[in-house]
Amino acid sequence: MINKQLLAALVLAIATGLLIVLTNFSGFAVSLKLPPAKTHPLPPTLAQWQDNTNSGDYFSQIATTEVGYLVWSKFPVKVFIQRPTGINEQQAQVWFNSVLDTVQEWNDFLPLLVVESSDLADITIERKTPPLEFSREDRSPRARSALTRYELYTLDHVLLHRVSILLSPSQTGRYLLAASRHELGHALGIWGHSPLETDALYFSQVRNSPFISHRDVNTLKRIYEQPTSLGFSY
Prior knowledge:
Layout: E1 11-15, E2 18-22, E3 24-25, E4 28-29, H1 44-47, E5 77-81, H2 89-107, E6 112-115, E7 123-127, E8 146-155, E9 158-167, H3 173-187, H4 214-224
Parallel strand pairs: 5-6, 5-7, 7-9
Antiparallel strand pairs: 1-2, 1-8, 3-4, 8-9
Helix pairs in contact: 2-3
């Protein structure tokens, strides 16, 4: 049975070029009594979406979890953008505006609302250095440009999740826009990467950062048509 203290029993983190699934975290074994996985109605923005270019998708690259696909069931999804510290006010405002621009881009496809408090947020975004990446093959840790991760929790016996995004202070200008756009795509449910560099969720950062593509939205729509335990009571 899931309880309110079991916030970190299951964590999935996506960093640029990295997918990690942890099934035992902070000493908690994953042995959850989950609600049956079902589908939610599509949000109107996705229900109305039509791709006249027949661009296809990369749904086969999307990871599922023990709770199903990581979709949001209540809209608008609330986003808190943490104003940076440690830099001057002008730089902080430029950073904030860049991240806000990418929130507005994704808002065309899923209803999002920027809130003024992290306590109200489903998704929080911070200018903060992600922890170093370690791999078994290479003992030298590597820096990461961004990291997105989620946590499960329950409220009134409903299984829910919240997401945090860390954007490295090294990301500026168009690279910040690309990183924020990319990580928000993960946070909204695209827990995987595209093999094509013309998609915002391409697995690596490129010089000419793409905007949200038809393939990105097609993939997002397919994800929201899948079953999940999130948003249902147990």
